[in-house]
């Protein structure tokens, strides 16, 4: 099966030329996408053209855009079947490791293959922290364990390339979105250990720790924000209703207050998650029914935990906070995977 190496490049140096030269000694074809580096880099890309196909555009649009541009170029010019291996232009991916990913992908064309780096002594501090935090956030939000979520060395087959192009994200968040979509679709992800290479404390990386991290975590942050707003609404209404039922001497006031507050806050949460977080196109009738079942089950479990905590002597206001924290992660998983998942997806070709 044909192997194509796809490399997005922004303001590269001679390390990219050296990588392409080494790859040309294998039975592969390389495609380089110049992500708006400018005319100052014309000479570098002219050298690249000796060993690879080069496609360029003038304005820097981000790594995700460059990857998808490269995939579209490959679809137009390559004849299936083939596999694609994406690699970085900064010298962090060695030719032998790139070929290792290619060889495994050829044998497992329906998997997403990741070249994963272990944290090593030479790993810069910001990369250690970033990789660790991202790994745990991804695991909590997706339910899937991936050691190196930030690796750019990835392999997949032509069967998946059109689907990969449709995943959202134009910059560094695209690679995280790919993992989120693969996890959501329950597709197989396989990791292969590669050598850990960081040159000059990784200063050649164009990753902006603040802005690009925000893009990567955006969906999780939006979900957390919507959940916080819904919780504050739920908590305020619960306290208000509970005080009213206590003053009126209403029996089972705790349960009634919790139920009334939950119905109102759940309606707000449904709207926010459907429109702003997951941007679901699922028919309203279908997602509403599934969400209503979630709310009903959530209410039963919520009330059971709440009552037990109160019976153990914990104040009702504190019990409410503890209960909501317990159910937060469960609610994210259910809403992402069952309620607001994409309602349609183009079928993959079985070539």
Task: Report what the structure shows.
This protein is of the alpha/beta class and 351 residues long. The protein has two domains: 2-216, Spore Coat Polysaccharide Biosynthesis Protein SpsA, Chain A, CATH 3.90.550.10; 220-339, no CATH class. Helices cover 55% and strands 12% of the residues. It is built from twelve helices and seven strands. A seven-stranded mixed sheet has the order 3-2-1-4-6-5-7, sandwiched between helices. Strand 1, helix 1 and strand 2 form a beta-alpha-beta unit. Helix 1 runs parallel beside helix 2, helix 9 runs antiparallel to helix 10 (253-277) and helix 10 (253-277) runs antiparallel to helix 11 (284-311). It is elongated, with a radius of gyration of 25 Å. The two termini are 12 Å apart.
Tell me roughly what share of residues is in helical segments.
55-70%
Q: How would a textbook summarize the main sheet? A: 7 strands, mixed
Trace the largest sheet across and list its strands.
Answer: 3-2-1-4-6-5-7
Oligomer: single chain
CATH fold name of the largest domain, please? Spore Coat Polysaccharide Biosynthesis Protein SpsA, Chain A
Q: Order of SSEs, N→C?
A: EHEHEHEHEHEHHEHHHHH
CATH top level class name of the largest domain? Alpha Beta
Radius of gyration: 25 Å
Shape: elongated
Number of domains: 2
Alpha carbon gap, first and last residue: 12 Å
Q: What are the segments in which pLDDT stays under 50 over at least 5 consecutive residues?
A: 342-351
How much strand content do the residues show? 5-15%
């Amino acid at each position: 099966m044909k192997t194509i190496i796809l490399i997005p490049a922004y303001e590269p140096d001679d390390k990219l030329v050296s990588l392409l030269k080494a790859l040309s000694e294998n039975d592969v074809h390389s495609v380089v996408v110049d992500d708006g580096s400018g005319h100052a880099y014309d000479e570098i890309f002219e050298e690249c053209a000796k060993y690879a196909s080069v496609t360029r555009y003038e304005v820097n649009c981000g790594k995700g855009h460059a990857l998808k541009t490269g995939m579209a170029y490959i679809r137009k010019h390559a004849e299936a079947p083939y596999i694609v291996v994406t690699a970085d232009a900064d010298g962090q991916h060695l030719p032998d490791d790139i070929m290792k990913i290619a060889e495994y992908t050829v044998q497992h064309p329906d998997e997403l293959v990741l070249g994963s780096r272990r944290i090593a002594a030479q790993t810069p501090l910001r990369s250690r922290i970033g990789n660790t935090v991202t790994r745990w956030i991804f695991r909590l939000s997706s339910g899937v364990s991936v050691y190196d979520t930030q690796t750019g060395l990835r392999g997949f087959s032509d069967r998946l390339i059109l689907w990969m192009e449709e995943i959202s994200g134009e910059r560094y968040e695209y690679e995280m979105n790919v993992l989120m979509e693969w996890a959501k679709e329950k597709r197989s992800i396989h990791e292969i250990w590669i050598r850990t290479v960081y040159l000059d404390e990784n200063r050649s990386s164009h990753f902006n720790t603040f802005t690009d991290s925000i893009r990567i975590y955006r969906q999780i942050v939006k979900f957390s924000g919507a959940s916080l707003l819904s919780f504050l609404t739920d908590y305020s209404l619960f306290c208000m209703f509970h005080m009213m039922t206590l003053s009126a001497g209403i029996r089972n006031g705790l349960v009634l207050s919790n139920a009334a507050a939950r119905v109102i806050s759940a309606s707000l949460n449904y709207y926010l998650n459907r429109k702003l977080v997951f941007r679901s196109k699922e028919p309203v009738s279908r997602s509403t029914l599934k969400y209503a079942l979630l709310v009903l089950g959530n209410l039963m479990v919520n009330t059971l935990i709440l009552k037990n905590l109160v019976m153990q002597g914990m104040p009702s206001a504190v019990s409410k906070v503890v209960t909501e924290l317990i159910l937060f992660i469960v609610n994210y998983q259910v809403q992402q995977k069952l309620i607001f998942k994409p309602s349609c997806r183009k079928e993959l070709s079985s070539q």
